[in-house]
Amino acid sequence: VGANAYLGIDAILPAVETGADVVITGRVADPSLFLAPIVNQFGWARDDWAKLGQGTLVGHLMECGMQITGGYFADPGRKHVPRPAECGYPIAAIDPDGGAEITKLETAGGMVNMATVKEQLMYEVHDPTRYLTPDVTADFSTARLNESGQDRVRVASAGGTERPKQLKVTVGFDGGLLGEAGVSYAGVNAAARARLAADILRQRFDDVPGMAGQYRVDLIGLNSVHGTAKPDAEGESQDVRVRAAMRSMDRDMIETMLWEVEAMLCCGPAGGGGYRGQITPGVVTHSTMIDRDAISPSVKVYEA
Q1: Does pTM top 0.70 for this prediction?
Q2: Which of 5, 21, 61, 146 is 20 to 30 A off residue 11, Cα-Cα?
């Protein structure tokens, strides 16, 4: 279906250097969106790995927007976020050496503190000493953080070494069709009725030639995330949704699955309702590496 290499500042800087008001990219590494204007502003060398590593840290902290100002952070009774419905985007005031102060507008909700910054620092990081990007192998293990005021955190001292010789490529393949359907049970004994519905569906699916082992059935509200790894919570839920899903190249088979779920409304346990089903085309992805020299980015400038 398609393939996208994760490009870096080498692809973005030529556009920034034209003085363009807006730069629209294809697939690029998230921190590179911030690193390119930083490098352009301060004139950093493309092989100043220490500064590029620090700039990548700033980009990494900023890349998910309000995640660093309280988004994806709140946990009632554990981690309070003020005015979460009004969280604002972060602001980074960057020094010529790459050090930065992360803050937000005083009038915006949310917050910037050591906790929000630390969580974003470790977000999607496997090895803090070798955070691979197209621009640098960043080292976040040396980073230093300190609160410099209300809703202000300074970040500095990240490092870096030579950039990887290869680029990551994500390849998309035709994933066939994804079918999904569900029906809900509520009230007294809802969990037991939902379990019975799931058992009936599994038996009926297995009776369809070729369907056995191709589907999954979850009980949303009971075990859709943890499955059998964790016992059901104490106290039976009175609001459970039975969800069935499968991926297949055979549309007829998926339609059969949807019909069987819809049949729970009159041919299953008592009190089922709220049926909804859909079939959507899918793409499956595989990531690999490609030599940097095999990719030649280009820039087009449009005036309006």
Answers
A1: yes
A2: 61
